[in-house]
Amino acid sequence: MTWVPGAAGSPYGVHNLPYGVFRHGGRPDRIGVRIGDLLLDLDGAEAAGLVLAGGALRTATLNAFLALGRPQWSAVRARVTELLTDPAHRAAVEPLLVPLQEVELALPFQVGDYVDFYSSEAHATNVGRMFRPDEAPLPPNWKHLPIGYHGRGGTVVVSGTPVTRPSGQRATPAGPVFGPSTRLDIEAEVGFVVGTPSALGTPVPVDSFADHVFGVVLVNDWSARDLQAWEYRPLGPFLAKSFATSVSPWVVPLDALADAWLPAPEQDPPVLDYLRDIPHLGLDLRLAVDWNGTVVSRPPFAGMYWTPAQQLAHLTVNGAVVRTGDLYASGTVSGPTREETGSFLELTWGGAEPVKLDGGERTFLEDGDTVTISATAPGPDGVTVGLGEVCGTIVAAGPPPR
Amino acid sequence: MTWVPGAAGSPYGVHNLPYGVFRHGGRPDRIGVRIGDLLLDLDGAEAAGLVLAGGALRTATLNAFLALGRPQWSAVRARVTELLTDPAHRAAVEPLLVPLQEVELALPFQVGDYVDFYSSEAHATNVGRMFRPDEAPLPPNWKHLPIGYHGRGGTVVVSGTPVTRPSGQRATPAGPVFGPSTRLDIEAEVGFVVGTPSALGTPVPVDSFADHVFGVVLVNDWSARDLQAWEYRPLGPFLAKSFATSVSPWVVPLDALADAWLPAPEQDPPVLDYLRDIPHLGLDLRLAVDWNGTVVSRPPFAGMYWTPAQQLAHLTVNGAVVRTGDLYASGTVSGPTREETGSFLELTWGGAEPVKLDGGERTFLEDGDTVTISATAPGPDGVTVGLGEVCGTIVAAGPPPR
């Protein structure tokens, strides 16, 4: 039981303890851990000798801490828990607590390689129907491997960063034209943050997931559907995605999600050996997509066909390295019903079936729209684990380059 | 005229001066500039006050120097030229020259985002014919935009790094199987190294290329064609490419290539405004692909349909940032004849038409094979600019993950 006022029973109690990077009082960015509606200044805590991490908590980004590896992650978590629960520490720790409303949250880690998967069967089926109506909805490889592709690490931004509407080429009957995207969309996803690196040429086995992955963020992989439809053959999405990918400011440790694992959907046909995870588990994360104040969808992460352990095993089976700070996202999280879809492409069926919003009808994103994706997971003893939120507001496109 | 013995008239005279990172005498990695068959230790030169770059030359990677921007790049180049040509500096500079055969060359810069284009018309046509025989060889978007996709920055390695044969899934009539790639290939490319970053949301105009790009490396984008054919639809190549991408150890500054620009192929249909570069110039880089000691191909970079300035303008037109250390590659450089192709897929027409090599016939790469891609460009006064080489030897696949 934590002594921090208001934290006990909250989704951000001592069972959670997500890490982030904050700005406060004009000082340089510092690492903190959330407890209730406060954060514990870990830079100050390590400076005071209250927690020891070899200086890794005294930097402006989580990367050095992420690189320490699971034994150290566990040790720091145990010590932080002790500081926040044992009243004997209250006098020393309380001055290091900062109200969340006083801070600005920064990108929590420097992103290395960013990979985006495509692991919801409902999403892949929906997109296949819309983008490739003359073919089977699921590509022939889809149930044999977790399809993924590389995105742009350099345009991963923290929640709250305004998203400028991208311009680019889209097809018209008269040929391609250049201009601001007219079909700007979201993708509600869950991202996995790599801590411990792997070695070049050495795959990460499917059962070594927790040795490498530190924790979870929420991801909004903003997508310009008109740009995507024109550019993506044959080498995949490029500018339709690379203008911005937003992540939540809190990295929730896997340790906080121990009660959220549950059997993942059965895989038929059976997968190849290197993808066989026993037990085959997914995470019961319950997402909510809020569009200008209205929750329009509740995508269930529990139904994802490919698990995060399988994704990591696949990503490295060719010998590719993962590095500290690498991020891989699940792909759009969509359940089988319209109210569980993780994109507006699916929610409005390509714009053909608008949703009611703000007293009118809406399809894709308009300038000024704000989308907030949040999530919770089951925690210990009936309490909830909060994953925070990732939000962004659309800003009008800038002028053409010249 | 340089006073450095043996350097005058060489492809690495004072007209070239490529930058790299070297290891020597058990000391930490240092920055050097090549002159003839020696390198000038720029760490030592800045330490001695012979060249001033605010400490950017006293680090273990080129990134800080790349971040300085064009005026500083020019100032350092002018000063290094002075040091290597004015005999008055010889006594101070000569002790800082290190024979190349004594050093090990390291990855010259930390790679941020890695993008690979697809800008040779001959290559795209050849691949289209082989991968999509039922469709037009060039996709409908190909002449409207420089198609590209993101690769894996974390597995960019320096020339000389052994390349382990990747394992992965390939299709068979009985379904996908897992194992070492049986169609391992090269892609001979030219890479552009970003120095000056751009701002999120602000495209880089097509005429600002030289403000952002510092220089050029040679790239071998190793490719597993069997993995690629099975995985690439609908989101593009992933594991078929991400196991290793080799780059040359020397970054040749754009300043060294001033005499290598020439008109690029005329573009018909006309391109959209943001891609219109006037003058429309390519680089006359002459590549050579050596396979186990035999030059099997001479790909001409001058014939590339899309120019590096157009590629950068396209890459950022949606507001995506470029950062210091970002690398974008041209895509496979292939000319119209078989002897000008930049991949063995094309050279052997998908393996159907083997080439004679080592007294036998060969199609794709075998374990132990070594491929070396080199290039030269025309320099001032009839002298040649050497771009060095990127080489790699194939090592047998490791065991499966478990």
TrEMBL record, chains A, B:
**Where does this protein act, in terms of pathway?**
Amino-acid degradation; L-phenylalanine degradation; acetoacetate and fumarate from L-phenylalanine: step 6/6
Supply the InterPro entries for this chain.
Fumarylacetoacetase (IPR005959), Fumarylacetoacetase-like_C (IPR011234), Fumarylacetoacetase_C_sf (IPR036663), Fumarylacetoacetase_N (IPR015377), Fumarylacetoacetase_N_sf (IPR036462)
Q: Which residues form the Fumarylacetoacetase-like C-terminal domain?
A: 116-393
Residues that bind Mg(2+): 221, 241, 245
* Cofactor(s) in the UniProt record: Ca(2+); Mg(2+)
Q: Recorded GO terms, molecular function?
A: fumarylacetoacetase activity; metal ion binding
Q: What are the entry keywords? A: Calcium, Hydrolase, Magnesium, Metal-binding, Phenylalanine catabolism, Tyrosine catabolism
Q: What is this protein called?
A: fumarylacetoacetase
